[in-house]
Amino acid sequence: MYASNEELLGLACEAAEKAYSKYSGFSVGAALLTEDGKVFTGCNIENGSYSLTICAERTAIFKAVSDGYRKFRAIAIVGGAEGDLTQPCFPCGACLQVMSEFCGGDLRIVLTDKEYTLDDLMPSRFALD
Ligand code: THU
Hints:
- By secondary structure, this protein is an alpha+beta fold.
- The chain has one domain (5-121): Cytidine Deaminase, domain 2 (3-Layer(aba) Sandwich).
- The chain is 29% helix and 23% strand.
- It has four helices and five strands, in the order αββαβαββα.
- The protein has helices at residues 5-16, 56-66, 93-102, 118-121, and strands at residues 26-34, 39-43, 72-81, 108-110, 115-117.
- The chain has a five-stranded mixed beta sheet with strand order 2-1-3-4-5.
- The protein starts with a helix and ends in an 8-residue tail after the last helix.
- Tetrahydrodeoxyuridine binds at residues 21, 24, 26, 28, 44, 46, 53, 55-57, 91-92, 95.
């Protein structure tokens, strides 16, 4: 059985607890559901050289891809300042672009308020093919 949205959000919250966000104080967690039901999680990892920071969504996607998974059904995302993960945390443009590399427009993007699709959040996307 596939993880429910609530389960994915719960896993994203657990991942956010591992965030390394000492510069912004903004913790983010993501839980990525593969086509065959496996879940990869990720957190944001900041760096003193600020631009080297990686977002939680890309951490999860790169973990999955580097383990051989390239097809995804859904990604749940939570984030907020000082541990408050209640407000919806939308993925940044860079993460949407990375999602679009591996996912169709029907990818489900699960936030705390509701579920969106990649088409909803990035209706026109750059692609080489
Ligand atoms: N962040 C994410 O992890 N995902 C996003 O989609 C947007 C922003 C992180 C990066 C940085 O560590 C913190 O949130 C504040 O920008």
